[in-house]
TrEMBL record:
One of its GO terms (cellular component) is actin cortical patch. This is Phosphatidate phosphatase APP1 catalytic domain-containing protein. Residues 129-191 form the Phosphatidate phosphatase APP1 catalytic domain. InterPro entries: APP1_cat, Mg2+_PAP. GO terms for molecular function: phosphatidate phosphatase activity. It comes from Calocera cornea HHB12733.
Length: 192
């Protein structure tokens, strides 16, 4: 899951806790009844920006939703909140014993800030998948007519003369129904 920035302006350098949760379903967005799926800590860069990719392990997603009584099949979105936590204050540098201690200015700490919840839709997974070694361009090669005919059909004749009618439309219809496709290829990866 790739997320959009939680804030438009940079934050002071510090830690950011990203909270990923399944909404509680009441639509108020307050996060009180949310199912916490993941918390990840990242550190902002010198300019105060951060960019993080959040991945929830499948077993953690399923177990978290089951504990909360939520149905995984009905999971349509997740909420992300970023909590900006300032870095801890660094202690003053140790001075030599010959010099008297002088008061050091204390760096200002920034208060913890919580972003508003950002909802990210999760596309539904197709329930059916097609595993195929062909794509939507199926043509008649004439294998039963011998090697010369196959060579002629594959390398000499124009593709429009050999394409089997309806196959491309059939593949487009299956895709419109929500089917997923996996293509199996025996060719070396360098040829793809």
């Amino acid at each position: 899951m790739s997320t959009h920035p939680a804030r438009a302006a940079p934050t002071p350098p510090g830690s950011v806790l990203s909270h990923l949760a399944h909404p509680d379903g009441d639509g108020d967005g307050d996060g009180d009844g949310d199912v916490l799926l993941l918390t990840k800590e990242v550190t902002t860069n010198a300019q105060g920006f951060f960019d993080e990719r959040i991945t929830v392990p499948w077993d953690k997603l399923v177990s978290g939703l089951r504990r909360a009584g939520a149905d995984l099949a009905r999971l349509a979105s997740v909420q992300v909140r970023a909590e900006m936590v300032p870095l801890p204050l660094e202690p003053a540098a140790q001075l030599s014993s010959a010099e008297p201690p002088q008061p050091q200015p204390q760096p200002q700490s920034h208060p913890t800030q919580l972003s508003p919840p950002l909802a990210y839709p999760i596309p539904p997974a197709p329930s059916l998948r097609v595993i195929s070694d062909i794509d939507d361009t199926v043509k008649h090669t004439g294998v039963l007519l011998g090697a010369k005919q196959v060579f002629h059909n594959v390398f000499v004749r124009h593709l429009d003369e050999l394409v089997l009618d309806g196959v491309a439309q059939w593949y487009r219809e299956m895709e419109a129904w929500g089917l997923g496709f996996h293509y199996v290829v025996r060719a070396p990866w360098a040829l793809l």
